[in-house]
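## retry 2 of 3
previous attempt timed out at serialization; input unchanged, resubmitting
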Amino acid sequence: MKLFAKNKVAEDIFDVNVLDDPGSGIDFTLVDPRATEKDIKSMLDIACDNRYYAAIVSPVHVRFARDYIDQKLSGTLKLGTVIGFPLGGSTTKSKIAEAKDAIRSGADELDVVVAIGKIKDGDFGYVKHEMQRIVRLKRKVVVKAIIETAYLSPEEIEKVVHALVKARVDYIMTSTGYAPLGADIETVEKLITLTNRTGVLVKASGGIKTKAQAENLFRVGVARVGTSRII
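## retry succeeded, writing output
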C-alpha cells in the first residue's frame, strides 16, 4: 500500500535560500486512515533522511512515533499530530481531551482544525476562546490553527486571523488537505500580510506536491510547508 508518493525531484536535498537548513521548514505528513505502524516507521525514516523539521501523524500513532523517534532516530524530528481533524466540528471539550492525550503521548506540536461553522456564523469569539484554551494547555507545545481558507471569504479570513492572533496561536494554517483548494499563493500572501508583526507565523498546507511549489511558498514568507509528498 503506497500512502506517500515520491516525486522526480525527491533525490534533491531541499534547499531554499530563506531556510537556515535544508528541509527545515517541512512538516512531512501521514494522516491517511489506512496507515499502519509499518507505514509510520517508513515515513519517519524518510523525514529523518531528508532532514525535514517535523513529522505529522494521526493521534492513534503518536505514542508509537514518539518512541521510534527517540529510540531509533535519536530524537532528531519534532512530532506533531492533528486535533479535531479533518472537519473541525468537534466540541471544545473533545478537542481539549484530544490535545491533552496527544501531549501525554509525546506530541511536540498540535495542528488544530478550528470550528469552520462558527466562522461562517460570525462567532469569532468562540473560535478565539476555543484556541486560547488549547494554547494554554502546555507552554512548550506548538499550536497551529487550521482555518480551511477554501471555505472562507476574504472578510472571514481577516476576522478569524484577528481572533487567532488574540488567542496567541503559534501558526495559522491554510488547509487540512481535504478542501477543494489548499495553499494558493494569493491566500498565503494575504495571511502573511495579516499576521505581519504579530508573532504568529503561517504554515502552507494542502495540495503541495512539488519542490517548486514549496520553494515559491517559502519565498513569499511562510515559515512551514506541510506535505505528504517527498519533495
